[in-house]
Amino acid sequence: MMANQAEIQPGHLVLDPFVGTGSIAVACTVFGAMMQGSDLDIRVVKGYAVGGKTKNKGIPGLDKIDKFNIFTNFLHYGIPEPDIACMDVSMLQHKQLYSEAKPVFDAIVCDPPYGVRARSQKIGMKSTKKVKENTNTDEGEHFAMKEHFDFVELHDLLLEVASKLLVPGGKLVYLFHTDDEKPAEENKFPEHEDLVFLRSSRDGLTKHRARHLITMQKK
What we know:
- By secondary structure, this protein is an alpha/beta fold.
- It has a single domain, classed as Rossmann fold.
- The protein has helices spanning 2-5, 23-30, 42-46, 72-77, 95-100, 151-165, and strands at 13-16, 34-39, 83-86, 105-110, 121-123, 146-148, 166-179, 195-204, 209-218.
- The strands form two sheets. A seven-stranded mixed β-sheet has the order 3-2-1-4-7-9-8. The chain has a two-stranded antiparallel ribbon with strand order 5-6.
- Helix 2 (23-30) links the parallel strand 1 (13-16) and strand 2 (34-39).
């Protein structure tokens, strides 16, 4: 459904900045896209966080797979592997990267973390931790700790990145979480002056919570 909303065609360049285990990337690749993705959690990308081999549930070839990681499904289905970077999505706004960024993606399709199933985080140093200087490297400061990534800030970043990296007419398709028990302002769909809202559909999760499949287009 998300790949359809993005109107992905063979040869399109598509980005998933919250790639996770790669399920969205698989769907977009089946539609003929060339995928690029990033994720903060190297354990998922490398397969460290994937459990042991599961029982064969009628899936041909499953018992022959020795290692499970983000590329396993692509190999299993014989489709091109994506280019994946282990990075914090907020780094896409890094001064140097952002100033040199060009609109190259035909679509951005993703499922941002919304704090229920998975916490939204970014690279940073918790205030309760002491900062230790590293004098053995010329690469500058490195903060390995993770800190909370505000829900509103995360989506504002996603729209800003989309406005910069999407080609004119390119689609941004993402899932947005709402909670009726929270203030209406927190449930308001994100907006950006360079992106036009096209449509949304609601998927009820619980009595109060829902996720919305939102499609926007760069002007």
